[in-house]
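Re: the 544-residue chain
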Amino acid sequence: MKLSISVIFKGAVVIGLSLISFGCGGSSSQSPSAATTSVSGVVMAGPASGSSVTAKSASGAVVSGPVTTGADGSYTIVIPNTALTGDLIFEASGGTFTDEATATTGVPMGTLTSYAVAGTLVAGSNVAIDPSSTIIQKLIAGGKTKVAAESAFAAAFGYTPDNSVKPVFAGMSSASTTPQRLAGLRAAAFSQLTADLTLSPGDQFALINAIAADLSDGTVDGGYMVAAKAIPADLANRFGQALVGFQMSSNNKSKLTPDKIGTPVFNKVAITPNYKVEFIPGMPAAAMGKSAFKIKITDSAGTTPATGLTNITVKPFMYMSSKSHTTPISGVTESSTPSTYDCTAYYVMSTGMTGGVSMGVWEVKVMIGTESAVFYPYVNMNMGTTPLVKLSGVVDTADPVTPVYSDGIVGMAGVKETRTWFLFDDGITKDGMASTYTVKLFTATKEMMTSFPAVYNGKVLKNDSNDNWTVSGMSVEVSGDKSTWTTLTDSGNGHWTATGITPDVSSKIYVKLTVNGLQKTTDGAAVGAANGYQTFTIVSGSGM
């Protein structure tokens, strides 16, 4: 059982604050001398105006201040050099701020803190005081080392706070660096989390204290009370939702797109009003292409298995800087393990590209009727073999004004485009000691950015006039030499199988797709000698 907040932080000094005028609006500051160092920072909950800031030793003795923040939350404080040889705690309280999530003005500021390690502050250093720095400071006050506190925080929330970075107000566009805007966006996520929990803006400070107490044993699992409400066991998961939710809201003026906000931590438990939903990753971990996983569902208390559910849907979605989109999913079936359901996603792209550049954020929403549980898995790149290939419908551009689409859809902003067809490696495996392979493929297509359905004979889609268009005469063929082709057996719901396929000497097989009597191509042009098929490399390291 976890200790109460008062027990965990028993012995922590209760800091009294007084106010002097400083910052924007005609305030004053301390005068530096040869034996002092000037340090600046910002108090961010939104920007805390008129907040009183003091610097204290680890034992609680005031070494400088108070000074008062300006309208933008900024402060400057002059610290005796003798104090810089020890750890310092910066504390801010009082004043008011504009709540980021609700845009409520004049919210009374509670208390926020920040921790500075001995010997790290020099003239011009920045010490940000915000929700994440407060949680770190309280974990240290509770007995953790700074490294352990940061590790626990990162495990729960997906990033390591850096109080040397000055966060900027995410609710206002300003000239600033990407790290500064990201720090501001993350501070705003705590405001959004407060709102998502149906707490008032001023309850944010009690929530931050409760999170620190909850995290003191290394795990955020809820139970602490804030404004007569117990914080939920899936609080860390909800922080990810708050971060993504605020990024997409009209209150976000940071100009940071989803590929710039960092990947939300993959917390694997979510609580809905009636269910506890656990995401059980498959082996290997999720990667571009086919990824199997399980969903375990019990009652919200986690005690009673939820068996026989038939109203489960899984909705993956990739949030990108532009052209956000879904990915194909192959049903949800109850497994042999009670309350566990098997799922397979076919990811059309990874979370990150070579060099660690993020493409965006993958969200997997599990719907049980109208209730939803949200997860943020990291989707790796696929190394070696080919996870999927793409083919296109043919477009006749002889008339550049009005091209003719033999297989088109209504794309973004109503603009017609050729339909993209996806063929996924659904299990290309060697036939024991033989030199042949069993080839299993999964076929899907793009209907719109929010719909990438499986395709098979009889599937009803929409054409480029947005009219119903039924798939018929669909066939998938495979070859090892591009001369002799074997037609795969339709196994239903987009799954196709062929056995005894011999790849070429470079471990490649080739596939063709024909739908409604028209063969698809790699470039949308008429079928030629080299564009009417796609290539799978089926052995890692064999010539990719």
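The two ends are 53 Å apart (CA to CA).
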